[in-house]
Amino acid sequence: MVDAVIGPEPVPPAEVAEVELYHPHSWITRYVFSQDAKVIAIQYSLTAMAIGLVALVLSWLMRWQLAFPGTLSFIDPSQYLQYITMHGMIMVVYLLTALFLGGFGNYLIPLMLGARDMAFPYLNMLSYWIYLLAVLVLVSSFFVPGGPTGAGWTLYPPQAILQGTPGYEMGIILMLTSLIIFIIGFTMGGLNYVVTVLQGRARGMTLMRMPLTVWGIFTATVLALLAFPALFVGAVMMLFDRVLGTSFFMPSLVSMGEQLQYGGGSPILFQHLFWFFGHPEVYIVALPAFGIVSDLISTHARRNIFGYRMMVWAIVAIGVLSFVVWAHHMYVSGMNPWFGFFFATTTLIIAIPTAIKVYNWVLTLWRGDIHLTIPMLFALAFIVTFVNGGLTGLFLGNVVVDVPLSDTMFVVAHFHMVMGVAPIFVIFGALYHWYPKVTGRMLNEGLGQLHFWITFLGAYAIFFPMHYLGLLGVPRRYHEMGSTSFVPESAQSLNVFITVAALIVGAVQLVFLFNLIWSLRYGRESGGNPWRATTLEWQTPETPPPHGNWGKELPVVYRWAYDYNVPGAKEDFLPQNRPPETSPA
Amino acid sequence: MGITILFFSGLAVIAVWWLSTQRLTSKPWLEQGAAGEFPGTGVSSAPMAKVGLGVFLAAIGSLFALFISAYFMRMQLADWRPVPKPTLLWVNTGVLMLSSAALQLARARADQDDIAGVRTALLMAGGAALVFVSGQLYAWRQLSDAGYFLTSNPASSFFYLITALHGVHVLGGLVALGRNVARAWQGRNLARLSLGLDLCSLYWDFLLLIWLVLFGLLLLS
User: Fold this and answer.
1) Do B28 and A209 touch (CB under 8 A)?
2) Quick check: ipTM above 0.90?
3) Domain A35-251+262-539 bears CATH identifier 1.20.210.10
4) A528 vs A281, A299, A362, CA distance in Å?
5) What pLDDT, in 10s, does the model give residues A537-569?
6) pTM score, two decimals?
7) Is A484 helix (H, G, I), strand (E, B) or coil?
8) Strand partners, A475
9) Does B34 sit within 8 Å of A6, measured CB to CB?
10) Is residue A5 within 8 angstroms of chain B, CB to CB?
11) Which structural domain, as residue segments, surrounds residue B135?
12) How far B216 CA lies from chain A's nearest CA (Å)?
C-alpha cells in the first residue's frame, strides 16, 4: 500500500488521540467493557438479535391465535394485546434501530472512513451498557404483576394508562422508563456516529467519497438525535400523568363508574409528539438500509453505483422531508382538512427522492456482472419488497383512501412490507456480506440459499394475503374475528395459510442462527477481501481487524468508493486507497 | 409544533450551509488524488470534543423546542390557569448570568496563563450555578407554599417539569465543571484545561439562553 502524501501537507486526519491509552489490558476490558467500536458493534448486534427472537416468538403466538383461536388457552384478549405491543416496540426500536445504528454503525463507520475508532470510545461503551439496561427493563415487564403493557406500540393515552388496559399496573411504567433509558443511551452513541463522520475521516475521504452506507447511517443518526427527543418528551409527560397524576395528556374521564382526578389534557398532543418521532423513525430504519443496499448491489454487480450524487442528495432530501409528514398517521384523529391536504402532499413528495433511489439501484444492475451471491439475493429481494410496500404507502398517504383502510390488516401488511421485511432483508444481506470481515470466515452458502428462499417467498406468503384481508375489512389488533356481515368465512382459511407460512419463516431463522454459530468454527476461510470490494473496511492489514484497525499507518483515500470495472484498469476493482496510476502533479 | 419547526428550520439552514461547502455537486468518479487537492473538504480543525458538544446542543435544543411546543399546545386548552411568578426567579436568572460571566472570566484568565485567576473564576462559576439550582428549588417551595402543586393545574405541572429538566442539565454541566476544577488544581495540562473551559462556557451560555427563553415563556403566560 503506497502511503505517500501528494500535494501540500493537508490537515492531519483526526483520530483517537494516544491510541495506546485505549488498548485493552485484560479479558474484561477487551471483550466486556470494551471501548473498541467493533466489539461494541457485536455486543449491540447480539443483544438486538436476542431481544428480536423474543419478538419473533410473540409473533408466532399471535399468528397461532388468529389461525386457531382458543387452542392455546393462555392467550386471552389481554395477552394478545400485550404480544402486539411488545412485538411492535421491540422490532422497531430495540431491534431495527439498535442493529442498524448501534450494530452496523459502530462496525462500519470507523472502518469505512479509515479511522481507528469512534470519536468518544468511552461514551460509546456507555451507550451499549445503557442500551442493555433499557432492554432488561423492557424484558422485566414480562415478569411484573399485570404483565407488560398492552396499549399498542403507539401507547396512545388516555387508554395506555387507564385501568382496563393490560399492563396498567407496572407494564406501562416499565415501558416508558425503558424508552427513556434507551434514548439517553442512544444519544451517547449517536453523538459518536455523527462526530466520527464529521471529524474522523481519513485523509482524502471527502464527503462525496464516502460509501453510501456511511451516508445512510450518518443521516439516519442525525434524524434520530433530533427525533428521539420527541418520544422522550412524550414518555416523560405520560410517566408524570401515570405516576404523579398530572394531566398533560389526560382529559377528564369517568372510568369504572368513577370520576378520575384527571382533567383537561389533550390526547392529541401525545399523538403529535409520538408521530413527530414516529415518522422519522421509519427513515431512521430505512436510510441505513438504502445505504447498505446500494453498496451490496454495486459490489455484487461489479458496477459503480448509478447516479451517486443523486443518491446522496436523495438521502439528505428524504431526511429533511421526513420531519414534515408526521400527521399522516393522524388522519383519523380529526384535523383541519387543509392540514390533511398539506400532510398528504408532503407524504407523496417523499415518493420522488425514494423513486430516484429505486431507479438508480435498477440502473446499477442494468448490464452489470450480477453475481447471485446471498447478499445480492437479499438486496434484490429488498428492492422488490420496498417497491411493493412503498406503493401501498401511496394508497395510504391519501386521506380519502386512508380513512376506510385505517386500522385494518392492510395497514399491517403495508408497514411490515416497507419497514419490517424490507429492512430485515438488508440486515440479512449485510450480515452475509460483512460476516467474513468480522470473523474471517464465510457463512455457509447452502444454508444461506435455504434461508434466503424460504424467508423471501415466505414473507410474501404472509403479507400479500394480508392486504386482501385488510381490503375485506378485517381489523388489526383483534384477538378474534368472530362473525360479521362483511368478512366471509373463507377469510379464516386465509388466516390459517398465513400462520403456517409465518411459522415456517420463523423456523428458518433458526437455520440462520445455526449458520452464524457453525460458520464461526467451520466456515470457509475468507481472506481479507472475499468480495473483491473497493471500500476501506476490506483493505485492513488484518482480518478480523484488531483494535485500532489499521496497524501503524492510517490509509489515505485517492478515489471514490465505486471504482468497479474501470475502463483500462487491470483488475475489475480499484480499492479506495489505491493511488492513481499517473501521479497528478 | 410551530416552535419546533422553526428550530428545525434553523438547524436545516446550518446543515445546508455546511453541506454547500462540501462540494456536493462534484463528480467523485472523475476525480482521483489525495486530500489537499480539494481544500475545505477534509475534516475541520475544530477539536473533536467541541464538534461533539455542538451536535449534543442541537439534540438538547430539539428536546426543549419540543417541550415548548407542547407547552403552547397545552396552553390553548380551557383549563389553563397561569401560576404566580416568584420574584426569586429574577434573582436566579441574575445568578445564572453571573455564572456564565464567571466562566468567560476563567477563559480570559486561562489565555493569560493566570492559573490562580482561573481557579477563582471557576469556583465563582460553580458556586453561582449551585446557588441557581438551590434557588430554583426554593422557588418550587414558594410555589407549593402558595398552593400550586405539580398536579394543581397544567401550568404548574409544566413549570415543575421544565425547571426540573433544565436543572438536571445544569447539574450535568456541574459534573463537567468539576473535572475542569480538578484540572485547574493539578495545573498540568493547561491546553486541555483551556479546551474544557471553552466547552463549559459554551454549554453554560446555551443553558442560559434556554433558561431565558423558558423564563420568557413563563412570564408571557
Assistant:
1) yes
2) yes
3) yes
4) 35, 15, 29
5) 999 999 899 988 988 888 999 999 999 999 888
6) 0.94
7) coil
8) A408
9) yes
10) yes
11) 82-220
12) 20
